[in-house]
Each structure stands twice: as C-alpha cells, then as structure tokens.
Specification:
The chain has 85 residues and is mostly beta strands. It contains no helices and 6 strands.
Length: 85
C-alpha cells in the first residue's frame, strides 16, 4: 500500500476537498478542481472532464484518502519495538 488509508466522509460544499471521490450511479468520480458558485454552492470538476454542481445545502458521502496517524507507542509498522533492559 502507499501509506494512505481511505475513509468514508460526509461532505457539504464547505467541507469537500480536491481528491475526494464520489460514487455516482455506481461509477467513481475523483475531484480535480472546485469553483465556488453563487449562494454557497460548489461546481466540482472530475478527472474524466465531467462536472457536478452542489447546491449550498447538498450533503453527499465521499471517499477521502488520508495519511494514517503515527502509532502512539512509537513502534514502527511491521517491526517489533525493542525492549528496554
């Protein structure tokens, strides 16, 4: 894996990010660009050239790729932590 995880998030025009992925009619669309529209909406542009306009109160579910937080124990992934003697 590339060191990133995918999570499901609820998004609105103010919280959607470039790179988020929307599933529309069973097809995944990745956001490449966004433009603010009048009255608080957003026009979303996707990698395939398609676009979608969210109204100010539209709420959708998206997949967002994130970098996982480091392990709080300080252990490195896949390696045992050395014991203190």
């Amino acid at each position: 894996m590339n060191g990133r995880d995918a999570i499901g998030v609820t998004v609105a025009p103010r919280t959607i990010h470039g790179g988020d992925q929307l599933l529309i009619a069973g097809r995944a669309f990745t956001i490449t660009d966004m433009t603010a529209t009048p009255h608080g909406g957003r026009r979303l542009d996707f990698t395939g050239g398609e676009s979608f306009t969210m109204k100010a109160h539209t709420v959708l579910y998206a997949t967002r790729t994130i970098r996982p937080a480091p392990d709080r124990t300080g252990a490195r992934s896949g390696r045992p932590r050395p014991r203190a003697h």
